[in-house]
UniProtKB/TrEMBL annotation:
Residues 1-84 form the DH domain. GO terms for molecular function: guanyl-nucleotide exchange factor activity. This is ARHGEF26. Pfam families: RhoGEF. It comes from Cervus elaphus hippelaphus (European red deer).
Length: 84
């Protein structure tokens, strides 16, 4: 995938379209990504359920989110990151 993108870039620095390359590789290479994105709604529901029903989880997650490495971002921002 990356090799083909590089070749397209070498051919013309102003890439107008890469959809053909992406389409070629999506059937097999991106299966985990597609599954992850498809399950996004379940991720959010599970997170909300855990926060509402599990005080220990909520406390630990709060500590993790406030850690400087997380830059005070909520867990949901990390869950949706691959889709952005």
């Amino acid at each position: 995938f990356f090799t083909e993108l590089e070749a397209r870039h070498q051919n013309n620095i102003f890439i107008e379209d890469i959809s053909d390359i992406v389409e070629k590789h999506t059937a097999s290479t991106f299966d985990p990504y597609v599954k992850y994105c498809t399950n996004e709604v379940y991720q959010q529901r599970t997170l909300q359920k855990l926060l509402a029903t599990n005080p220990s989880f909520k406390e630990v997650l709060s500590r993790i989110e406030s850690h400087e490495d997380c830059r005070n971002l909520p867990m949901i921002s990390f869950l949706i990151l691959p889709m952005q």
